Every structure is written in C-alpha cells, then in structure tokens.
Amino acid sequence: MISTRRESQFLTHTVGRVLEMLKLESTPINTKGYESLLDLVENTSGDSFDLYYGLFMYNRNVLEMLDRLDLAFEDLRKQLFGRLHEVVRKQLFGNAESRKVLQENYNKGHLNGAAALPSRSESVRFQGSARTYEYEAGNSSCSDDSSKLKIAIVGFGNFGQFLAKTFVQQGHTVLAYSRANYSDVAQKLGVSYFSNADDLCEQHPEVIVLCTSILSTEKIIKSLPFQRLKRSTLFVDVLSVKEFPRNMFLQHLPPHFDILCTHPMFGPESGKNGWNQLAFVFDKVRIGSEGSRVSRCNKFLDIFAREGCRMVEMSCAEHDWHAAGSQFITHTMGRVLEKLGLESTPINTKGYETLLNLVENTAGDSFDLYYGLFMYNVNAMEQLERLDLAFESLKDQLFGRLHGVLRRQLFGSSENPQELSEEPSVAKFSQNSAALVSSSSETLNAENN
C-alpha cells in the first residue's frame, strides 16, 4: 500500500512540476479542467525538490512509471504528427486544386505553425484587451415575443442538441439540419428538422449556428445554398478554435452576411447543471451597422447572458493564444494520463483525484476534437514543444541528482549536494524555451524576406 501511495504521489508531483515549469497563468477563459491544473501546480509547488527526489529515489516502481509517462507522451505526439503527415501527404499527392489549398494554408500559417508562433514575451499585447460584459436578465431584450429569433442549427449532434434545448426553452424558433438523421430527437426537443440544406435555408432563418466539427466545418459551409438565404443572415460558429472559422467565414461568405465567432467554454457534461458563471467568448467579426442587425446580434448573445454565462468579448487571435496555453495543455495532459490507465486507490490524495477527474473530463472528447485544437490553432505547436522541454528538463534534474550521488560514492567527492538542485534545469528549460521562440522568429523573418 505504501508503494502504491508513493507511485500516485510521484505521478502527481511529476505532473505538477512539469506544469510549474510552463509558468501557467490564469486567463479570462479558464475552463474547469484548466482551473484544476492551476490548483495542482499551487498544491505541489510548495514542496521541496528533496521530497520529490525522495519519492523517485526510494520507490523501486517509480522509474517504470516515469518511463510509461514518457512513452505515453511520445505516443500522443506520434498520433498528432501521424495525422498531420497524412493530411499533408494527401494534399501533396492530390490534384492541382489540393496543392493550391496546401500552398494557401502554408501562406496563412495553418500548417507551418513555427513560422507564426508568437513568443511568450509577446503576451503583453493581449493583457487587458479582453472585456467582460455583464448583462442584467431583468432588462433582457428577449423578454417578449417580438424579440424571439429564428435560429437554424447546422450540425445536430450532441452539442447542437445541447444548445437547442436552451434556445427552445427561451422561446426561440429552432430549425436543425444534419447529415445524420436526428428527426426523432428534434421532435422531442420541439425543433423542426430538415434533411435537406435547401429546404432549411428556404425557411429564411435569422441566425445560422454551425455546430459541426472543426475538421468538417469548411466542407459544410461551402455546401450551403447561400442564394436561398436572406442577404443579412447572421452566421455564428461555436468551435474551440477561433482564427480558423473567422478566416474561413471571411473567405467563403458573401460580404452581405454578418459574422459572429463564439466559443461556449462548456459542453453537455460541464454545463449539465446550468451555465451560470461559465465563460462565453465572442468576437463581433462583421456586424452590419443597421439597428436591426446590431439588435439581432445582441439578442443572440443575450441567450447566453440570460443563463448566467460570464460574457467575455475578445478577438479571435487572443482567444487562440489563451486557448493554446489552457485548453490544449489541459487536453494534452488528460490524454497522456489516460494512456497510463490510472485507477483510483484507497489512499487517493487531492492531487491524484485531480488527475483522475482530468482524465474523466477529457476522455469523452473525440480525437478529432483534440486534433482540431492542435491543427487549427497556430499557437498549439509551441505549447507542445514547451511541454516536451519541461518534461525533459525534469528528468534531467532527477537523473542529474542521481548521477551526483553515484559520483560521490565512487570518487569520494565532498561536493555540496545542493549544487545539484533544481535551479540549473529550470534555467536550462528557460534557455531551451527561449531558443525555440528565437528559432521561430528567425524562421518567420527569413520567410518574410
């Protein structure tokens, strides 16, 4: 039992120390999972490195766990880069149109993430730029029938159904369209279901909400019959990344359509007991100046405000910057830990419970969602590399101290054990991280020239 406790403690402290090296900070769009990681760092950072080294040195099983953690992280990287390689390979060896798309993606920085990575020092440009809006439900513009919206949901899977329940409860008319047949579910929710996109658009919805996956969004938007819609229709997305749908909307939507990019920072699981105080991020990318169009946008936002959401307005670029450091890191750690097959023990610590809860909260999400966070957020690659560097630096600390112990035993050295403390490895991580960013900047400058 003591061995089991030390193993769970060692894993908890290892994850905490790796995350501490990343210097995670609270953001305006924290998720519950990210909050738990911040708490884990706070709970483990006060313990000395000697305590952590003791957990490593005096339990014969922890070296195996360290190796398994290393293999799990490497396996996840292979999954990500394997999928990335497949995408690039198809584009390289596809038709001329595919090659053209590849070149456009490279130019925009979607596939060549290193060339467009902002350094950590540039984060100051975002400080204070996000604005939180507080709505008063009593003064809601959705208080009478004249202010109700006709909302079409394109993509009626779990998340689309999740949103539809609240839309209907607030009295809005909801239409739905999806490739799969959800007519029975729609009927139970009080939603009008359409199996044909033309039929949906001929209903002239005021708002079209895209609840598709990140990977299928562009294909879906290209397939919609825009000519059947009113010229001022408001398009809304709810994807976990924001610059990608923003650029896609601007590229493919006719200029007379309005654009609102949003990200509800919750889902069917985290929002099952209500949306109060859960973050809802939005960016009014293109809203017409006419009073009716401004009012319609505000009515849609008010749906979430009435449910108690914390309304945060920020640019799509700022959202993706914060999300790479919070949402992507959270999902990465959850998936790495999931590969270890962690189990509850009779002596769980609060920190270990945090890891178990993190795995549970992220395990339900598809790999496509996680891959989308990686593929369509230009900042994600930098965060993955920093996480890798942090883990390598922590291993250097452990084995560097171990090597020092053996060296003193072999050569009778009188060196001060404190000389093998954690500071050099932390400095090394900082230097490596700075080198990564410097290399990214040099690449960007070279390409621009």
UniProtKB/TrEMBL annotation:
The keyword Oxidoreductase applies. Residues 149-428 form the Prephenate/arogenate dehydrogenase domain. GO terms for molecular function: arogenate dehydrogenase (NADP+) activity; prephenate dehydrogenase (NAD+) activity; prephenate dehydrogenase (NADP+) activity. One of its GO terms (biological process) is tyrosine biosynthetic process. This is AROGENATE DEHYDROGENASE 1 CHLOROPLASTIC. InterPro entries: NAD(P)-bd_dom_sf (IPR036291), P5C_Rdtase_cat_N (IPR028939), Prephen_DH (IPR003099), TYRAAT1/2 (IPR045011), TYRAAT2_C (IPR059064). It comes from the Eukaryota. Pfam families: F420_oxidored (PF03807), TYRAAT1_C (PF26213). Keywords: Oxidoreductase. It comes from Salix viminalis. The keyword Oxidoreductase applies. SUPFAM superfamilies: NAD(P)-binding Rossmann-fold domains (SSF51735). The lineage of its organism: Eukaryota, Viridiplantae, Streptophyta, Embryophyta, Tracheophyta.
